[in-house]
Automatic annotation (TrEMBL):
It holds the Pfam family 4HBT_2. It comes from Aquisalibacillus elongatus. InterPro entries: 4-hydroxybenzoyl-CoA_TE, HotDog_dom_sf, YbgC/YbaW. Belongs to the 4-hydroxybenzoyl-CoA thioesterase family. NCBIfam families: YbgC/FadM family acyl-CoA thioesterase. This is Acyl-CoA thioester hydrolase. PANTHER family: 4-HYDROXYBENZOYL-COA THIOESTERASE FAMILY MEMBER (PTHR31793), NOVEL THIOESTERASE SUPERFAMILY DOMAIN AND SAPOSIN A-TYPE DOMAIN CONTAINING PROTEIN (0610012H03RIK) (PTHR31793:SF27). Keywords: Hydrolase.
Amino acid sequence: MLVNEADVKVRYQETDQMGVVYHANYLVWFEIGRTQLIEQLGFSYASMESAGVVSPVVDIQAKYKKPVRYGQTAKVKTWIDYYDGFRVVYGYEVYTEDGTLAVTGHSTHVCVKKETFKPISIKKHFPDWHEAYMNAMGE
């Protein structure tokens, strides 16, 4: 299984009054990891969008275990947890600077026509992506 690792320097504006990363910012970090994973596979959201397709989030979950604080560098690990040719579930783990697991999560995505939001098959419309996703999962 292919796992992307992205380092994210915690910025002051990402923290709350308690000095820890505000919970919604982890979703942004998930996006950073997901985008880097897709780029690592040789693709980009921009190329998908230029073909008239977007990939909305249809479900997202996060479990918070330990705080990440201002000034630290977090590590975001991202992988493809599930893929069936239509739906993609990405898995995430965020670690503190000392390697402690801080957050786990999953996001589920589908691809849709940009103009109509009608779902499409990734396998059919983007066979290169399909093959890369299957390879990234080790299948």
